[in-house]
Amino acid sequence: MSRPPIVWRPETPAGPRKRTRAASPPPKKGWTLPPKVKQYLPYVVVFLAILTPLLHNPPRNNEIPSDLIGVWRSTTPGYEDRYFQFSRRNLVFGTGGIEGEAYLVAEVQSSPVGEGEEGGASKSKRLLFTIRYMKTDKLEYELLFYYDPEPTELITFKNQEHLKWTKKGRDS
After folding, report:
1. Which residues contact 18 (CB under 8 A, 6 or more apart)?
2. Which domain holds residue 89?
3. Over the stretch 129-155, which tens digit does the pLDDT of each residue have?
4. Is 128 exposed, middle or buried (0-12, 13-18, 19+ CB in 10 A)?
């Protein structure tokens, strides 16, 4: 077998030849925001933080229907000096004489009561109202009652149907 010939290479004056790499590219800069965007970014974040709950929790209906506005009294023995009064966004429970407890209405819901249904159509105009109200302590309370518009306006509480309340005035 024959061997390849040995080739002699002379050294360069600077010493042995070194391998050099090509220059590496400069490091990439990170993504930066323009100064105007940086200036207003905190305001945008706060605005979105405030707006998000409003979009997910639409405002509740807190206005009392005009048919209910006024003072309601009962002729049932023991309740002659009691009353309750609806105004546009308030509810007052009369506790005897002229004294009463005032509350702020938080939400009003109503739904028809399906009494006397024949052929799928209800003949009753009776409504079930659910009113959520609160005092300054922000605790919510709930009042459920039936409202019969005919023949005379009449309210009966869902848990006290033996008490009948009729409208005495239209105060707002």
Report:
1. none
2. 70-116+123-169
3. 999 999 888 889 999 999 998 888 899
4. middle
Please state, in angstroms and rounded to a whole number, the distance separating the CA atoms of residues 140 and 155: 22
Q: Report if residue 153 sits inside a domain.
A: yes
DSSP string covering 62-95: ----TTT-EEEEE-STT-TT-EEEE-SSEEEEEE
Q: Is-contact 76 164, C-beta < 8 A? A: yes
CA neighbor of 132 nearest in space, from 153, 159, 103, 111: 103
CB atoms < 10 A from the CB of 102, how many?
Answer: 13
Per the confidence metrics, is the pTM higher than 0.70?
no
How many structural domains does the chain have? Answer: 1
- Mean pLDDT, range 161-168, rounded to an integer: 88
Task: Report the sign of the C-alpha dihedral through residues 92, 160, 166, 80, in that order.
Answer: negative
Give residue-wise pLDDT tens across range 50-68. 888 777 766 678 889 999 9
Q: CA–CA separation, 172 vs 166, rounded Å?
A: 17
